[in-house]
Amino acid sequence: MLQNQYTTALTMWTVGYCIGQIPSNMILLHVSPRYWIPALETVWGLCTLLTYRVTNYKQLYALRFFVGLAESGMYPALHWILGSYYKPNELAKRASLLGTSAGLGALFSSILQAAAYTNLDGIHNIAGWRWLFIIDAVITLPVALLGLVFLPAVPGHSQEKPSFWLSQADLDLAKARMESVGRAPQKPLTWKRVLGYSKTWHFYLLPLMYKLTPLAPKMVWNNSIKYTAIMPFWLKDKGNPVQRGVAERNHLVMPITGIGIVTGWIAGWVSDGFLKGKRWPIMVAYNSIVLVTAIALAALPLWKSLSGHFALYYLSGAGTNVAGIYFAWINEICGTDAEKRALILAMSNDASFVLQSIVPNFVWKQTDYPKATKGLWYTAGLSIFLMFIIATIRYLQNRDRELAIRAANVEKIGAQTDNGAGYETYDDEEKK
């Protein structure tokens, strides 16, 4: 395959992924997740299986598009489901576990792929790279069937139905729990309501916040490169005083993913526990790490301090899996409207991916590695701007909360007035 054809194959996946996210989450409002998500998983598995049979690049383009389309609905949908079950002191832990699953998958898949390619190449006259797609499908299709059994219904969903492990009483309890924290059940979605969403700050600032996240999650087959990917180029560069083999370089890079997973777990537990459901302090803390690390790497001479580079590269992994904190905050800010919550979650992930697919072509060029000065300063600038966006969102959230409290008090006083509470009637005056 030629380089241009490979790039087009990546692009086809991206196009499918970006097109499918918002429609998928809207479909989820009408079709139970128990059926919709396994359906997407099945399409993904079948298209992946068919990929092992491709004989030309046009077939690959078509299959990669549908793989991206099927995969698009998964991540925002799962965060919407989590937001339909868990309170503010519970949500970030679950969202962080979901977010770090991508990092864990990357660790295990790299090992699995290396083993499959090495041990299965040529078996039954099938090339090693084709076996990788067969294995992916063999793993995926049974998981899709398990989803039909174990994926829960969403409390208040139009197709809410109990299952053998989640009774109607359990669903009623979950619904009551969400009502206690102001998380609204579903209502019919109309274009008038969608137009109303577009007139709120949530519609613009929340997707922008996640879109600007320098460490937003990376998706499979996305060829954009962020600053956590500098280390492999630095290790294999001819200018490096210590030359290492491929296996050693791969092992040295792995701690970045591991650090990202551990810090993601820490972020979720601290946000739910010690911070009592606050999200913005975690975002500011990890974004500060990004800012300091990016500036330090840009300023440090490339080969002056090898140990310093190792420390900074590993530190860059901190915060790579805190996307769950962002999605938890979006779930809570939009909690009074289930449909708006579904839409904004999908828009946020979609906007982030569009940005990651375009910008790296200009600021993360491979010819700039291993120094990548332009990309590092881009990351630092993005971090500063993101701090401003986080502060603005926090201000607006607090303002809206105060306005809601005032409106509730006015309504309460109005109800008392209508009932005559605290006031004398004309009959009382006449009796006096």
From TrEMBL:
It comes from Kwoniella heveanensis BCC8398. Residues 1-399 form the Major facilitator superfamily (MFS) profile domain. It is a multi-pass membrane protein. Pfam families: MFS_1. Belongs to the major facilitator superfamily. Allantoate permease family. It is found in: Membrane. The keyword Transport applies. It comes from the Eukaryota. GO terms for cellular component: membrane. GO terms for molecular function: transmembrane transporter activity. Keywords: Membrane, Transmembrane, Transmembrane helix, Transport. The keyword Zinc-finger does not apply. SUPFAM superfamilies: MFS general substrate transporter. The chain crosses the membrane at residues 61-82, 102-120, 132-154, 252-270, 282-303, 309-330, 376-396. This is Major facilitator superfamily (MFS) profile domain-containing protein.
